[in-house]
């Protein structure tokens, strides 16, 4: 059994010390980082669908699934619109910007995110693996038509392609669908290249492909950090645990990193 990590916020300076000695850093992010932008976590505590059946007498996992979309796209789009309305007007926060601001100071900073909101790219991060897709990217299920939207409010209840009349869908991984091959390949390539340090931020890490990079880094003796106000599947595995919301913790870590780097540029 892994040794329980130190939960003291005072160890943030140790985390920064490891960052100053690193060349390649990976941030793994989940709903917790976007919660600081006011987005609901959908299925988490206090989430949009926490513990309730949808109006169509099915769990949200079934309503927003590939199977239901194929059979009844109108049902899936009903809840995509509902989720879109709950997130309207939100944008990236200080946590996203803190990660993006670190990029110039490392050989590589990569973000592996489960979120489909596009906030990491909006904040300026360039190396982003959107493992579950991006809700702002739409494509036709019948032809090559594709487009981008900022808000689903501009779409019909069941959006149809202007070129062929087929149903349009967001480029996201619905429940029971496979991960996008391009994202998986990019993740595998970067994991093979190796990371000197791995952060997990605001994610319960229930998916193996989210937990695996942390376990891999720990086994190779690389520093691992969890930022989350509650305990998760990875809490007993990481070397450092910061029990805090994502945005304030990342902002403080970035602030101390930049301060120490200015003090000792070498």
Give the gist of this structure:
The chain has 266 residues and is α/β, with parallel strands linked by helices.
Return the CATH topology of the largest domain.
Rossmann fold
Structural class of the secondary structure composition?
Answer: alpha/beta
**Rg for CA atoms:** 19 Å
Helical coverage, percent range:
25-40%
Q: Using DSSP, what is the number of strands?
A: 9
**Largest sheet strand order:** 3-2-1-7-8-9
Helix count, DSSP H or I runs of 4 or more residues: 10
CATH architecture of the largest domain: 3-Layer(aba) Sandwich
**Helix and strand element order:** HEHHHHHEHEEEEHEHEEH
CATH class descriptor of the largest domain: Alpha Beta
The averaged pLDDT comes out at 91
Strand content: 15-25%
Can you lay out the helices and strands and say which pair or pack?
Layout lengths: L11 H9 L3 E6 L1 H5 L24 H4 L2 H6 L1 H14 L7 H9 L5 E6 L5 H5 L4 E3 L2 E8 L5 E3 L19 E5 L8 H13 L3 E5 L6 H12 L4 E4 L12 E3 L3 H18 L3
Parallel strand pairs: 1-2, 1-7, 2-3, 7-8, 8-9
Antiparallel strand pairs: 4-5, 4-6
Helix pairs in contact: 1-10, 6-10
